[in-house]
Design goal:
The chain is mostly helical. It has 13 helices and five strands. The structure holds adenosine-5'-tetraphosphate (AQP). Adenosine-5'-tetraphosphate binds near residues 17, 20, 152 and 199. GO terms for molecular function: tryptophan-tRNA ligase activity.
Length: about 325
């Protein structure tokens, strides 16, 4: 654990739709900044995605599309290990061990479960309930030091830390206790239609989110129809959550500070602000979308990335699982 050259990072995105600006600004943008200094494991977490019903054909397609989006955002396959979660069976195995050490009360408190179960009452499955344990397994398998995620994942990160500490205390020092890594203003990008809710790729209202892969016209239209308020002043204030969210997005997409943006629109209305913001967002997304479309035409290349990724990820995952099985008293399998 202590003899590693570089610190380790793990993070994942569900192939439950196309990536939103929330996924990008909350997670992927930090991934690209961290890839030079850390040993990074990035996963298309399809096992998490099936906690809500998925069409098999769509899930298959979305998994490779997600990989193309990772690469288009600047995740370098030569520097990072990029893999499909279900290709490394150790995730399911460690999940089970950790399930036996997680209290029902801990899972009952999880707000993501409460939100998602409200949305899908007809599909209240046990996987949705134990989702945070699988997430802990994902992270702990790689002995990750750091987990770059949006702050909607803070509660899940706490559970991962608690489980690592619990296991280490009950048996012996086995897991690195991971830390969450949250970007400042965009740790929670909000819905364009209901700014008190986070932007989510599975929102039934398509105007609520911006997708990295959608056309420039669609993005601009969505920004122009984003819900604001009747104050009419571009101000960074909790009383104007719609405008605050747009300023945060504008700032993160252009690297202009919030103060700079506010002063740029002094005395101007929301129309000018939204118009120029839309242009800036569209221009920042343009190269990502173009690269994404190019990559989709190269399925063999994408396959070679996730094949190599699974091989590399599995080496590390298997080492951790072997230690865990040994600690808990599972006898090793002997080959005849
Ligand atoms: N609105 C957001 N703001 C900041 N970060 C966000 N993330 C998601 N939404 C926002 C971060 O994106 C990463 C991948 O998320 P995920 O796909 O694993 O699951 P999620 O958090 O449930 O994302 P969605 O878009 O809301 O998916 P659905 O609709 O399928 O549930 C995570 O790091 C997350 O923090």
């Amino acid at each position: 654990m202590g003899d590693r050259e570089k610190k380790v990072i793990f993070s994942g995105v569900q192939p439950s739709g196309k990536m939103t600006l929330g996924n990008y600004l909350g997670a992927l943008k930090s991934w690209t900044k961290l890839q030079d200094d850390y040993e990074c494991y990035y996963s298309m977490v399809n096992m998490h995605a099936i906690t809500v019903p998925q069409d098999p054909e769509v899930l298959r397609r979305q998994t490779t599309e997600l990989l193309a989006q990772f690469l288009a955002c600047g995740i370098d396959p030569d520097k990072n290990t990029i893999f499909v979660q279900s290709h490394v069976h150790e995730h399911a195995e460690l999940n089970w061990v950790l399930c036996t050490m997680t209290y029902m009360g801990e899972l009952n408190r999880m707000t993501q479960y409460k939100d998602k179960s409200r949305k899908s009452e007809a599909n209240l499955n046990a996987g949705l309930f134990t989702y945070p344990v699988l997430m802990a397994a994902d992270i702990l398998l790689y002995q990750a030091d750091l987990v770059p995620v949006g702050d909607d994942q803070k509660q899940h990160m706490e559970l991962a830390r608690d489980l690592a500490n619990r296991f280490n205390a009950r048996f012996s020092d086995t897991f690195v206790v991971p830390e969450g890594y949250y970007p400042k203003e965009t740790a929670r990008v909000m819905s364009l239609q209901e700014p008190e809710k986070k932007m989510s790729k599975s929102d039934s209202n398509e105007k609520a989110f911006i997708l990295l892969a959608e056309s420039a016209e669609t993005t601009a239209k969505k920004i122009k129809s984003a819900v604001t308020d009747s104050v009419g002043i571009v101000k960074y204030s909790d009383e104007q959550p719609g405008i605050k969210n747009l300023i945060n997005i504008y700032s993160a997409m252009t690297d202009k500070s919030v103060e700079e943006i506010v002063s740029m629109y002094e005395g101007k209305g929301y129309g000018a602000f939204k118009g120029e913001m839309a242009e800036a967002v569209v221009e920042t997304l343009r190269p990502i979308r173009e690269k994404y479309n190019y990559l989709l035409e190269n399925p063999d290349y994408l396959e070679s990335i996730y094949a190599k990724g699974a091989e590399k990820a599995q080496i590390r995952a298997a080492q951790t699982l072997e230690k865990v099985y040994n600690q808990i008293g599972f006898i090793p399998k002997k080959n005849k």
